[in-house]
Amino acid sequence: MATSVCATGFKGGLCTSSFHGSWGTSTAGEDYAALARSVRTNVRVGKPVRLMPMMKNVNEGKGLFAPIVVITRQIIGKKTFNQLRGKAIALHSQVITEFCKSIGADAKQRQGLIRLAKKNGEKLGFLA
Fold first, then answer.
1. What's the CA gap between 104 and 123, in Å, rounded?
2. pLDDT, tens digit, 9 for 90 and up, residues 41-78
3. CB within 8 A of 44, min separation 6: which ones?
4. Can you tell me the distance from the alpha carbon of 112 to that of 82, in angstroms, rounded to the nearest whole number?
5. Dihedral angle of Cα 84, 90, 91, 97, to the nearest 10 degrees
6. Helices 78-103 and 66-76 meet at what angle, rounded to 10?
7. 35 — phi, psi (to 5°)?
């Protein structure tokens, strides 16, 4: 059964095809069972290495207030410093919320102001 068929559908010499045979044979003449026996079944895969996410400020050490922030963190300790920073951020968010209530801004505008305050804090070095 050595018939060649082209994409045009014509049988015979109008198309040159290198395929002569059946779909069941491989190019090397081996059958599927022999090929399956030659392949390793126990492939060892090592445990994937997963890096810990780094929660780091891209402006670390930059900004007007960064040196003061770094020195204060070294003096009072990281845990106490982070608690103090968290209280300051919460207080600032409350001030922004009260301001938005007084001018009649909606929640979306309030959230935008809080994001803007975070960006400005990063640029100035408060989050160093």
1. 28
2. 676 777 777 766 665 656 566 888 899 999 999 999 99
3. none
4. 24
5. 170
6. 130
7. -65, -40
Residue type, 5: V
Taking the chain (128 residues) in consecutive chunks of 10 residues, what is each chunk's mean pLDDT?
Answer: 52 56 55 70 71 62 86 94 93 92 92 91 87
**C-alpha distances out from residue 30 to 22, 40, 71, 74, 93, Å:** 13, 17, 73, 71, 72
* Nearest residue to 127 (alpha-carbon basis) of 69, 49, 50: 69
Q: Could you give the CA distance from residue 56 to residue 77 in angstroms, rounded to a whole number?
A: 18
Helix/strand/coil (H/E/C) assignment for every residue in 60-98: CCCCCCHHHHHHHHHHHCHHHHHHHHHHHHHHHHHHHHH
The string of DSSP letters for 12-59 reads: STTS-----S-TTS-TTS--HHHHHHHS-S----PPPP-PPP----TT
Three-class SS of residue 115?
helix
